[in-house]
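PROTEIN DESIGN WORKSHEET
SECTION A - STRUCTURE
LENGTH: 311
TOKENS:
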């Protein structure tokens, strides 16, 4: 990720498009949350127009914000929300802002934005421009993580657990991890990464945009132009328990059953040819056939923290 000229200035004008179904918004109410954001921007000498909209209206609202070249467009939501609007964000010919409102906030962490709301807003007003690679799976863009098997099932179970335990993230995680441990079945996958070719029986295969080399699902670079493929070899119930614990503690990379390969192009093919659950930044779909991953280098310019953003 490359640092750049600061984008914040006194009287800078922002248009903030908020996913009205984000947990943070539902907890406070849309009107109160919008007022909090407007006040936070005003406290840093900036102006903000805040629009809390339903998920199916995000594309139109964000397109309107991007079309108004007098403002800085900002999307507020979790990793899945950001994933869903990536095609719209790519139409912007200027830096865009992200306010992470999700549970995990993988991208927000890497931008140095996993901080209280007031500090997030300060970053948008005073931060620097950073370049962001994206991944392309067949025709679907993603910004951080895609995969199949244990991790994909965990993402799907986590979404269901959030509805079951809306006020306890810990309970939701335990529920999702337990069901994933019990119901994951090994898959045989044909994997090509560049010139490397292997066929493995795995509990999970995870493809990340650039190297996730930090202890807490974090990347030291966002514009390295590569994928990292993580293969969790099938080893039964105990190994999946350890994998879930590794996810919770940030020590997932220390597993002796985890193999990682770096490359610019990745092909995954399930040997059983069944439709499987594939995760994109926490969202889940079912896909059959070959999965072709390609890097989209320097796809977006985003606003990152002066300190704390990994560059």
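SECTION B - SEQUENCE
RESIDUE ASSIGNMENT:
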């Amino acid at each position: 990720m490359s640092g750049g000229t600061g984008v914040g200035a006194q009287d800078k004008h922002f248009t903030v498009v908020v996913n009205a179904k984000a947990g943070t918004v539902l907890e406070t109410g849309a009107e109160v949350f919008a007022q909090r954001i407007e006040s936070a921007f005003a406290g840093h000498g900036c102006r903000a127009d805040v629009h809390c909209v339903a998920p199916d209206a995000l594309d139109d609202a964000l397109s309107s914000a991007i079309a108004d070249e007098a403002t800085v467009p900002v999307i507020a939501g979790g990793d899945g929300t950001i994933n869903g609007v990536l095609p719209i964000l790519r139409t912007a010919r200027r830096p865009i802002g992200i306010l992470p409102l999700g549970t995990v906030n993988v991208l927000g962490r890497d931008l140095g934005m996993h901080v209280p709301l007031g500090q997030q807003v300060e970053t948008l007003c005073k931060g620097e421009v950073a370049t962001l690679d994206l991944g392309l799976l067949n025709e679907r863009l993603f910004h951080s993580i895609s995969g199949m098997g244990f991790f994909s099932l965990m993402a799907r179970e986590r979404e269901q657990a959030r509805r079951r335990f809306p006020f306890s993230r810990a309970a939701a995680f335990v529920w999702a991890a337990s069901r994933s441990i019990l119901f994951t079945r090994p898959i045989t996958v044909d994997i090509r990464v560049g010139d490397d070719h292997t066929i493995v029986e795995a509990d999970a295969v995870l493809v990340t945009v650039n190297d996730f080399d930090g202890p807490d699902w974090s990347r030291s670079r966002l514009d390295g132009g590569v994928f990292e493929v993580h293969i969790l070899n099938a080893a039964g119930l105990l190994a999946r328990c350890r994998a879930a614990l590794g996810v919770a503690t940030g020590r997932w990379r220390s597993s002796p059953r985890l193999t990682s390969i770096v490359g610019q192009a990745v092909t995954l093919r399930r040997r059983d040819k069944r439709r499987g659950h594939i995760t994109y930044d926490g969202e889940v779909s079912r896909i059959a056939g070959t999965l072709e991953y390609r890097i989209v280098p320097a796809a977006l310019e985003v606003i990152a923290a002066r300190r704390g953003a990994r560059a």
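SECTION C - NOTES
The chain has two domains: 13-133+299-304, 140-297.
Confidence is low (pLDDT under 50) at residues 1-8, 306-311.
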